[in-house]
Write a structure and sequence with these properties.
This protein has one domain. Helix 1 runs antiparallel to helix 2. The protein has six helices and no strands. By secondary structure, it is mainly alpha-helical. Keywords: Membrane, Transmembrane, Transmembrane helix.
Length: 177
């Protein structure tokens, strides 16, 4: 997470988000390889950690984008800022990477666990719903002229629900089922 903020402060290019996330991925994989060795468990922890980092970065970028939109409406914007549509597209791509990380985490978690239990079924259901929502919004943006801003807002909600399923399922299953 710190690598993202460092790249955001140091780099002034349009790819600063991707550079920071790439560096964060290298750090996460390096630490997991050092800690767990090259194993399925290390892959699982790395994919889950990277998905969490992407969610935090996505929410942060969305907050910055909303601030950017507020400045545009007030007339306080400079001429060198990125366009709003471009920022929404970057966030949409980030969400896609996050969902890819969650799917990788789900597959590696299945390989680590080895059997299907209620917790894994719960995760699979939420992941499939989020993937369907993402694919529908992707197709809507690509072919049906859906505004990217509406697609991003809906997809962020589905992405947050998937991560809630990953972290909240233990609490729900232990306390209520």
């Amino acid at each position: 997470m710190i690598s993202y903020f460092i790249s955001r402060a140091v780099l002034k290019s349009s790819k600063q988000v991707y550079a920071g996330l790439s560096f964060a991925l290298l750090i996460i994989v390096g630490l997991m390889t050092y800690s767990k060795g090259i194993s399925i468990l290390g892959l699982h922890v790395s994919a889950t950690s990277f998905s969490i980092v992407i969610l935090i970065v996505t929410f942060f970028e969305t907050t910055l984008l909303e601030r950017h939109i507020t400045k545009i409406k007030k007339g306080e914007i400079g001429s060198n800022d990125k366009s709003v549509e471009r920022e929404y597209n970057e966030i949409f791509v980030l969400i896609g990477f996050g969902l890819g990380g969650i799917i990788l985490s789900l597959i590696s978690g299945f390989m680590v666990l080895g059997e299907i239990d209620i917790e894994l079924i719960f995760k699979i259901i939420f992941t499939v719903f989020a993937l369907i929502i993402y694919m529908l919004t992707f197709l809507g943006v690509k072919y049906a002229n859906l505004k990217v801003r509406y697609a991003v807002r809906g997809t962020i909600l589905s992405f947050a629900m998937v991560l809630l399923a990953y972290f909240g399922n233990s609490i729900i299953l232990i306390n209520y089922l």
